[in-house]
Write a structure and sequence with these properties.
By secondary structure, the protein is an alpha+beta fold. The longest helix is centred in the first third of the chain and has 19 residues. One of its GO terms (molecular function) is 5S rRNA binding.
């Protein structure tokens, strides 16, 4: 039986997350979610089960509502880096989920790095 796109995505997401957890135990996770219309990022402490900071292209103050492009992703990346600094976080590992590391996901990661977050 052939796997559907969704099943392949879920397998890829679990594979990426499990590999990252083995290598980065104890560090915070910068998790990215990309839909067809928006992109969002969360800084998660898996030990405590808490989200420390988040940013999304749905936030009006970022000025990218309704824009689904690389520039919007870069603004979300800069915002998450700024909020991470405010929360006292300097270092995290990048969890791309099942999304490929190019385009909007890469732009978000690069902008977070430029904002001072060590990924």
């Amino acid at each position: 039986m052939a796997n559907t796109k969704r099943q392949l995505f879920l397998k890829r997401r679990l594979r990426v997350r499990n590999k990252l957890r083995k290598v980065n135990a104890g560090r915070l996770r910068l998790s990215v979610y990309r839909s067809n219309k928006n992109i969002s990022a969360q800084l998660i402490d898996d030990v405590a089960g808490k989200t420390l900071a988040s940013a999304s292209s749905l936030e009006p103050r970022l000025g990218v509502v309704g824009k689904n492009n690389v520039e919007a992703a870069a603004k979300v990346g800069a915002a998450i880096a700024e909020r991470a600094k405010a929360a006292g976080v300097e270092e995290a590992y990048f969890d791309r989920g099942g999304f490929l590391f190019h385009g909007k996901v890469k732009a978000l990661a690069d902008a977070a790095r430029e904002g001072g977050l060590k990924i």
